[in-house]
C-alpha cells in the first residue's frame, strides 16, 4: 500500500493515498468523515444514488486495517452521516471481524445516533480525545497547548502550474496548530483550503501522496 | 364554404368594424383549423399570429353553437395555450379577453403559471376557463394533480406558442411529453388539434414533426410570407485606433448611444449576458443621471415582480429605456418600443432578427436596430450580419433526443397524481419525437430507477420512490409527492441561490459559484442595487444595501452563446472581402487601419485560408488558430490539436478560445511547422483521437448538473424547512463522481456524455470544419508581438488544459494557488 512517511511533532505519520493516517508510535489508524450510511440515507428519501458506496468505503478501511494492523482506529468525527438506517447493522457485522481492535469516535456534527447504538457497534464515543499531547477534535480549532488533529472540512487544494493549468485534489493539511484530515468516505465533496507558506500540504493524486507545500 | 359559416362571418364583421382585414395567412390558418387539422404557423411577431389560431377556435365554436354562443358558459377547457414565458401569458390573455368582450362571448381566459395565486388555482379546479394559458412546467403540475384527466375531457386544441424557442430545449421535451398524455386522454374522442407558432428557423418541417410526434399527413405549415424590413446601423467609434481590441462591455461607446436613446420614445438595449446589463444600467445612470426612474433592467435573475413591473411599464410607454438580455427576446409586443440597440455580437442570425423585430411592430414598418461593438473586430460581425440577413441564412434549432432526465421527472409526476400503467405510457412516450428511438431496455431501466433506485433488490436496501403493483406505478408517500411537486419547474437549473435583504425583501437569484467566491463584506451588484454580502443561510444569500463605489459584477455563465455556423461562414467571407479594398460597408471601411496592422504583423486570412500565429510572450509559447467556428467547436478542435501535438512529445497545454479562434499555450516551444500542420486537422482517426483527447468527462460533468436537478437527484429542500434536510444535500459534481465510479451504466450518466458530444462538442459541425480546413491553405506566421486577432483570445479567461505528462509529474511542476 502506497504511503508517505511524515515526521512531525516528534511522531511518525504514514499518510496513505486511501485517505487515512497511520500513527506508528501509537499503532493507531486515523480516519475522518466516513459518512457511512449517506447513500442509504439518500435512497431512503427517494434519491437513487448507488447503494454500495458505504460498503465500498468499509472495504477500503478493511484493507487499511489489514495492511497496518493497528491496535486502535481513531475516527475524527462524522462516522455515520445521519439517523439510523440499514448501514448500521451492516457495520455491526463488518465490525465483528476486528473485535480485538478498539474503535474510538470523536463526535462530529453528523454523529447523531443514540448512545446505545454506538455501544451495540462496540464504538467508544468521545467529545474530544487526547493522546501524547495530540488532541483529536472534529472541527478544526487552534488550541493553545499541544497540537490538534481534525476533520470536518473535507479539505482539498487547487494546484496550478505554467500554462494556466489547474487541478482540485483532496489533501492532508498540517497547519501551525492544527491538522485537517481528508474525508475518508467517497461520497463527499471538497472544500478548498488556502494554506500559508510554512504549512505542509500533501495532495492525494490517484494512488500517490505528494507534498505540494 | 368559408364565408357562409356563421363564425367566419362574425369575425370578419368584427374586424371590418375596426377597419381591419384578416391577413391571408390568418384566413388560411382558420380554414385548416375548422377542418380539424394540426399544423404550424410561421409568422413574425407583430402580425397577428396569436389571432391566426385563437380566432380560429372562436370561429369554430360559433360555427358549432351559432345560436347560443353568446349565452353558453362553463363549457370546460377548450384550448390550452402553452407559452414559454410567464411574461407572455399576461399579454396574450389581455388580447384575447379584449376580443371576447367585444364579441360578447362569455368565454373565460385563465392563466396558469408559477405566479398564479392559490385562490385562482382552486377556482380553476372547480371550473376551468375555456382557454388556459400555461407554461410547460405548469402543464406538468396539472398532470400531477389527482383526477387530472377530468380537466381535459372537453379539450379540443393545444397551441404551442413560440415553438422555435421551446424546440431544442428540455422544456420542449416537457411539451412533447405533456402532449403525448393529452393525446392519450383524448382517445375515443375527436383527435386533438395541435398547433405550433414559430418564427422563421432553418428547420420548420422538423419543428412540425416534433410537435406531431407521429407523422400526420393532413398537418400543414401556414406561412405568413411577410418580409419584415430590417435596417442595421452600427454605432462607430470616432477613432478606431483608440477603440479597445478586446473586451465585452462596450460602455466606451455609451456617449454615442445616449443621443439615440434620448431621441427615441422607448429603447431596448440588448446585451448578451446578465452581468453586462447590470454594468450598462449603472453606466447609463452615471453618465445621464436625469434618466433615473426612466430606465430599468430586465434579466432572468431578477425578481419576478420587478420583471412584471418592467414589462407593464414598457406597455404603458413610461420607460425611456430597458437594458435586457434574451429574457426579452420573445414575442412580447411592446408597442412603444421604437429603437433597439444590440450591444456586442448577437452570435446568430435568428436571434438578431428576433431582437430587431422588437421595434417597429406596425405591419410594414421598418425595424431599425443599432449595433454597438464591444471591441473593434466585432464590427466585422455587423457587416456579416447584413450579408446573412440578405441571404436569409437562418439557423436551425435541433430538437432534444432521449432526455431521460425529463422522462424520469415526468413519470414521477404521473406517479404522484393517479399513478400510471406502464404499457399505456410506453406507447404514448414512444409516439413522441424525443423518445421514439428509446429501446425497451432503456424503458425498463427508467422504471427500475424509479422503483428500486436502479439496483437489484437486496436485503439492505431501503429505496423508496415509486411503488410497483404489476404494471401499475404510483407514489404512495405524501412527503415524496410534496417534494416532487415543488421540484417540477426547476428545469432551468444551475445551482442558484436566492438573494434577500437581511431585513427582508427578495431581490433575485444568483449563481452559487459566484457567491462562493465572495467574502462577507464584499460588494456586488444585482438588479441595479449595490449590495453587501453578509452570509449564506438556508440556501439564501443575505445582503444589505452597500455604499461601496466599486462592486463586483456577478457573472452568469449560462448566457454565453457560441457563434452559429451560419454567421461563422459569412464572417470568414467578410474578412476576405474587407482586405479586398473595394468594400462599401462602413463597418469594414473604418476597420481598415486595424486590418492593415494585422496584415503588417501577420496576415488577414482569405476565405480559403486558415491563419495560424506563433507568438512568444512572458506567459510562454502561444499558438493562435482562427477557424471562425464558434467557441464550442474551437474548444474541441483546440483540445484535439493539443492532443495530436502532444503525441509528438510530452507537453502540457492550456487552452483558451473565443468565437473567432483558439489559443494553445505551453511552457515549451510548440512543435508545429508548415510541413506538418495539415495533418493536425486530418479526419483520419478522428473518432479515436477525440475520445482520448477531449476532456469528455469534464464536459459531461458540466452537463450532468442540469440532468441531476431535472431528474430529482439534487434535493433542494422545502421552503422554510431547510434544517431537517441538511443531510440530503449534495452537489451534482459529487453525484457525477459517484455514478461514474459505482454505476457507470446509469442512463443519466450516459445522457450527460451524449449531451456533451452533441451540444458541447457539436461533433457534426466539427467534422465539417476540419474537412474544410484540411482542404484549405494553412498560413503560419510568427508575429513579433500580439496581433489584433489574437488579443481578444489571450485575455479570455475560459481555459481548459490538456497534457501528455503524468499527473504526478505535472503536480511536481505546480504550485499551490489561491
In words, what does this structure look like?
- The complex is a heterodimer of chains A (213) and B (818).
- Helices cover 18% and strands 35% of the residues of chain A.
- Chain A is α/β, with parallel strands linked by helices.
- Chain A has one domain: Purple Acid Phosphatase, chain A, domain 2.
- In chain A, strands 8, 9, 10, 11, 12, 13, 14, 15 and 16 form a nine-stranded mixed sheet that branches. Chain A has a seven-stranded mixed sheet with strand order 1-2-3-4-5-6-7.
- Chain B is of the alpha/beta class.
- Chain B folds into five domains: 218 residues, P-loop containing nucleotide triphosphate hydrolases (Rossmann fold), CATH 3.40.50; 161 residues, Rossmann fold, CATH 3.40.50; 145 residues, no CATH class; 60 residues, Ribosomal Protein L25, Chain P; 146 residues, no CATH class.
- Chain B is globular and about 85 Å long.
- Chains A and B meet through helix 1, strand 11, strand 12 and strand 15 of A and strand 24, helix 26, strand 27, helix 30 and strand 28 of B.
- Strand 11 of chain A pairs antiparallel with strand 28 of chain B.
Amino acid at each position: 500500500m502506497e504511503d508517505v512517511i511524515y515526521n512531525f511533532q516528534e511522531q511518525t505519520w504514514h499518510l496513505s493515498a486511501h485517505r487515512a493516517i497511520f500513527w506508528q508510535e501509537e499503532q493507531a489508524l486515523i480516519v475522518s468523515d466516513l459518512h457511512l450510511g449517506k447513500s442509504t440515507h439518500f435512497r431512503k428519501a427517494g434519491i437513487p444514488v448507488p447503494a454500495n458506496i458505504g460498503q465500498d468505503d468499509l472495504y477500503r478501511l478493511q484493507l487499511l486495517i489489514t495492511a497496518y494492523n493497528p491496535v486502535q482506529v481513531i475516527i475524527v468525527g462524522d462516522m455515520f452521516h445521519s439517523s439510523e438506517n440499514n448501514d448500521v447493522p451492516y457495520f455491526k457485522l463488518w465490525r465483528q471481524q476486528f473485535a480485538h481492535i478498539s474503535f474510538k469516535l470523536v463526535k462530529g456534527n453528523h454523529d447523531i445516533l443514540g448512545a446505545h447504538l454506538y455501544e451495540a457497534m462496540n464504538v467508544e464515543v468521545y467529545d474530544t480525545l487526547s493522546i501524547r499531547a495530540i488532541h483529536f477534535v472534529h472541527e478544526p480549532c487552534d488550541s493553545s497547548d499541544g497540537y490538534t488533529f481534525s476533520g470536518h472540512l473535507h479539505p482539498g487544494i487547487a494546484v496550478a502550474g505554467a500554462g494556466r493549468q489547474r487541478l482540485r485534489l483532496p489533501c492532508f493539511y498540517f497547519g501551525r496548530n492544527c491538522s485537517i484530515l481528508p474525508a475518508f468516505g467517497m461520497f463527499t465533496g471538497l472544500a478548498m483550503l488556502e494554506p500559508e507558506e510554512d504549512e505542509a500540504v500533501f495532495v492525494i493524486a490517484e494512488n500517490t501522496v505528494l507534498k505540494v507545500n | 364554404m368559408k364565408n357562409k359559416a356563421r363564425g367566419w362571418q362574425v369575425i370578419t364583421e368584427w374586424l371590418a368594424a375596426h377597419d381591419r382585414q384578416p391577413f391571408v395567412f390568418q384566413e388560411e390558418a382558420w380554414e385548416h383549423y375548422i377542418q380539424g387539422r394540426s399544423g404550424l404557423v410561421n409568422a413574425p411577431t407583430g402580425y397577428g399570429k396569436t389571432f391566426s389560431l385563437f380566432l380560429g377556435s372562436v370561429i369554430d365554436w360559433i360555427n358549432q353553437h351559432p345560436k347560443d354562443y353568446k349565452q353558453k358558459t362553463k363549457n370546460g377547457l377548450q384550448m390550452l395555450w402553452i407559452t414559454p414565458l410567464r411574461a407572455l401569458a399576461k399579454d396574450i390573455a389581455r388580447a384575447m379577453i379584449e376580443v371576447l368582450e367585444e364579441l360578447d362571448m362569455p368565454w373565460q381566459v385563465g392563466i396558469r403559471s408559477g405566479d398564479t395565486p392559490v385562490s385562482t388555482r382552486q377556482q380553476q379546479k372547480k371550473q376551468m376557463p375555456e382557454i388556459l394559458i400555461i407554461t410547460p412546467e405548469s402543464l406538468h403540475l396539472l398532470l400531477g394533480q389527482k383526477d387530472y384527466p377530468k380537466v381535459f375531457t372537453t379539450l379540443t386544441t393545444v397551441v404551442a406558442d413560440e415553438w422555435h424557442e421551446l424546440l431544442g430545449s428540455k422544456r420542449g421535451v416537457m411539451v412533447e411529453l405533456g402532449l403525448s398524455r393529452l393525446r392519450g386522454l383524448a382517445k375515443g374522442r375527436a383527435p386533438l388539434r395541435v398547433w405550433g407558432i414559430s418564427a422563421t428557423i432553418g428547420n420548420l418541417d422538423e419543428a412540425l414533426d416534433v410537435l406531431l410526434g407521429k407523422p400526420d399527413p393532413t398537418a400543414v405549415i401556414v406561412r405568413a410570407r411577410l418580409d419584415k424590413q430590417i435596417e442595421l446601423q452600427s454605432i462607430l467609434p470616432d477613432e478606431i485606433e483608440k477603440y479597445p481590441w478586446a473586451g465585452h462591455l462596450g460602455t466606451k461607446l455609451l456617449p454615442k448611444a445616449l443621443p439615440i436613446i434620448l431621441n427615441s420614445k422607448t429603447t431596448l438595449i440588448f446585451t448578451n449576458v446578465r452581468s453586462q446589463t447590470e454594468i450598462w444600467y449603472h453606466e447609463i445612470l452615471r453618465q445621464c443621471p436625469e434618466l433615473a426612474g426612466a430606465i430599468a433592467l430586465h434579466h432572468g435573475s431578477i425578481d419576478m415582480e420587478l420583471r412584471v413591473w418592467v414589462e407593464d411599464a414598457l406597455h404603458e410607454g413610461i420607460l425611456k429605456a430597458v437594458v435586457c438580455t434574451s429574457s426579452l427576446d420573445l414575442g412580447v409586443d411592446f408597442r412603444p418600443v421604437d429603437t433597439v440597440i444590440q450591444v456586442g455580437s448577437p452570435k446568430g442570425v435568428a436571434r438578431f432578427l428576433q431582437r430587431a423585430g422588437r421595434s417597429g411592430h406596425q405591419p410594414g414598418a421598418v425595424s431599425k436596430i443599432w449595433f454597438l461593438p464591444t471591441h473593434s473586430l466585432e464590427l466585422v460581425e455587423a457587416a456579416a450580419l447584413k450579408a446573412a440577413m440578405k441571404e436569409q441564412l437562418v439557423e436551425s434549432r435541433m430538437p432534444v433526443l432521449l432526455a431521460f432526465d425529463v422522462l424520469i421527472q415526468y413519470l414521477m409526476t404521473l406517479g404522484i397524481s393517479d399513478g400510471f400503467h406502464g404499457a399505456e405510457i410506453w406507447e404514448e412516450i414512444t409516439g413522441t419525437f424525443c423518445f421514439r428511438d428509446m429501446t425497451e431496455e432503456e424503458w425498463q431501466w427508467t422504471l427500475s430507477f424509479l422503483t428500486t433506485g436502479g439496483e437489484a433488490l437486496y436485503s439492505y436496501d431501503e429505496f423508496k420512490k415509486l411503488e410497483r403493483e404489476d404494471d401499475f406505478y404510483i407514489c404512495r408517500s405524501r412527503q415524496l409527492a410534496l417534494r416532487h411537486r415543488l421540484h417540477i419547474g426547476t428545469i432551468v437549473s444551475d445551482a442558484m441561490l436566492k438573494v434577500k435583504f437581511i431585513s427582508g425583501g427578495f431581490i433575485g437569484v444568483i449563481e452559487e459559484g459566484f457567491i462562493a467566491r465572495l467574502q462577507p463584506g464584499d460588494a456586488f451588484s444585482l438588479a441595479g442595487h449595490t449590495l453587501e454580502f453578509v452570509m449564506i443561510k438556508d440556501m439564501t444569500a443575505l445582503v444589505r444595501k452597500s455604499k461601496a463605489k466599486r462592486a463586483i459584477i456577478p457573472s452568469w455563465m449560462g448566457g454565453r452563446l457560441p457563434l452559429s455556423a451560419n454567421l461563422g461562414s459569412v464572417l470568414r467571407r467578410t474578412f476576405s472581402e474587407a482586405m479586398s479594398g473595394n468594400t462599401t460597408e462602413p463597418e469594414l471601411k473604418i476597420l481598415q487601419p486595424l486590418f492593415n496592422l494585422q496584415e503588417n504583423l501577420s496576415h488577414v486570412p482569405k476565405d480559403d485560408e486558415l491563419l495560424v500565429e506563433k507568438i512568444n510572450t512572458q506567459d510562454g509559447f502561444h499558438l493562435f488558430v482562427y477557424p471562425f467556428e464558434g467557441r464550442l467547436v474551437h474548444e474541441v478542435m483546440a483540445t484535439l490539436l493539443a492532443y495530436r501535438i502532444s503525441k509528438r512529445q510530452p507537453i502540457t497545454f492550456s487552452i483558451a478560445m473565443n468565437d473567432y479562434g483558439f489559443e494553445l499555450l505551453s511552457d515549451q516551444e510548440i512543435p508545429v511547422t508548415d510541413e506538418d500542420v495539415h495533418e493536425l486537422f486530418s479526419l483520419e482517426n478522428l473518432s479515436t483521437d477525440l475520445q482520448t483527447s477531449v476532456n469528455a468527462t469534464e464536459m459531461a460533468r458540466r452537463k450532468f448538473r442540469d440532468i441531476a436537478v431535472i431528474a430529482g437527484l439534487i434535493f433542494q429542500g422545502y421552503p422554510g424547512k431547510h434544517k431537517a434536510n441538511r443531510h440530503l444535500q449534495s452537489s451534482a459534481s459529487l453525484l457525477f463522481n459517484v455514478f461514474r465510479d459505482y454505476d457507470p451504466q446509469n442512463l443519466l450518466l450516459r445522457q450527460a456524455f451524449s449531451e456533451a458530444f452533441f451540444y458541447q462538442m457539436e461533433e457534426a459541425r466539427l467534422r465539417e470544419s476540419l474537412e474544410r480546413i484540411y482542404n484549405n491553405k494553412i498560413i503560419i506566421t510568427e508575429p513579433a508581438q500580439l496581433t489584433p486577432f489574437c488579443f481578444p483570445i489571450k485575455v479570455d479567461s475560459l481555459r481548459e488544459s490538456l497534457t501528455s505528462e503524468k499527473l504526478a509529474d505535472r503536480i511536481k511542476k505546480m504550485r499551490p494557488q489561491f
